[in-house]
Amino acid sequence: MAAIINNYNMEHERVILYLNEVEKQRKEIEQKNYLLEKNNEELKEAKQKTEQLNLKLREISVTDSLTGAYNRRYLLKCLNSLRK
Question: How far apart are CA 71 and CA 62, in angstroms?
Fold first, then answer.
């Protein structure tokens, strides 16, 4: 009977150790998921900012900085598109 109790206690201890390890891994995964979500959000914001800056850059590339009027590059592009 003592051997059965001893085996039970040893098995119980192994289960507790296993559960502790599983809980530790769960917490690590949870932390990594949080960091991943945070990084994804930062990437989305950076992508949005990049897209806005690209639009501004396109606008700047086809307009005169002093007058705001369209420049030669824009006019040539328009003429080329009309020819097609």
Answer: 5
